[in-house]
Amino acid sequence: MTDAPPRAAGPRILLVDDEPGITGMLSIVFEREGYEVRTAGSCAEGLRLVGELRPDLVLTDLRMPDGTGFDILKKARETDAETPVVMITAYTSTKTAIEALKAGAYDYVSKPFDVDELKHVVGKALERKRLADENQELRSRVGDSPALGPLVGVSRKMRAVFDLISRVGRTTSTVLITGDSGTGKGLIARAIHRSSPR
Known about the structure:
Layout: E1 12-16, H1 20-32, E2 36-40, H2 43-53, E3 57-61, E4 63-64, E5 67-68, H3 69-79, E6 85-89, H4 94-102, E7 107-110, H5 115-142, H6 156-169, H7 185-195
Parallel strand pairs: 1-2, 1-3, 3-6, 6-7
Antiparallel strand pairs: 4-5
């Protein structure tokens, strides 16, 4: 697996379309929005770049001379299941749109498209990806520890609480937990109990 190139400030978008006018226009639009944009003029190039770049979002044409947007979608899902793929096409049909969504596409936009609508779709898709990535990061930080149960947090103070639970749980000391009503004393007590070998 190839490491992705260093990131610019904004999210990375990969545009895959065999029409240079479309990729050129969309590059300008999304770069002005603060995104890092890369383009591919064929399905083969798009497949290669999906693997190399690990983009935050893929915007792909449905029909190209050497493949389809479904090929790009499959590769993007294999590379990172959370990467949203938006399909654009001049060949609109309800059946194809349903197939694209069932295959895992985030959305399906018909040509000619409204640029503001496309910017909105891309923004929503990237927000969803950001939330999914944040969720995964939180889960890895907390470690999905059964001892912590429903306790979740990444702030310095919450990490200190988790560390204290772990340290206290390894001792045989009696613990007194104080605090206002509704602050989670019971949750902390259960977490200490679950982390204890007793």
